[in-house]
Amino acid sequence: MRIEVLDANDLAIEEKFDTVWVIECSEHLHDKPAFIRSVRALLKPGGTFALCAWLAADELPSPEQRQLVVDVCRGMLCPSLGSMREYETWLRQAGFGQLQSKDITRNVERTWTCAEGLPAVLRSS
Length: 125
What we know:
CATH architecture: 3-Layer(aba) Sandwich
Number of domains: 1
Strand order of the largest sheet: 1-2
Radius of gyration: 16 Å
Largest sheet: 2 strands, parallel
CATH superfamily: Vaccinia Virus protein VP39
Helix content: 25-40%
Distance between the termini: 44 Å
Number of helices: 6
Shape: globular
CATH class: Alpha Beta
């Protein structure tokens, strides 16, 4: 097994991989669909792309919820948060066939209260 650490904005390498695993990176990219297309090009036939990302809800009905996403993006240096539906669309458009999506919010939501300084960052806006 070999692990590569690459610049997600420039995945212009010729080697192909069995698996590409991305954790909390795509939120920081301006062109998420282009990134997903780049990952698709890196995979061997039958390869696996595992992606963990902070997501916005598919529907943000209230101005307060929309503002919270804006504040989180500003505080965490993310140009935007895609929704699960958007990621699924981008993945299909990039040629990924079999998709498995899972909302694991309940498993990771405690990290918000554990992240030292995060509430101060969000309040400073």
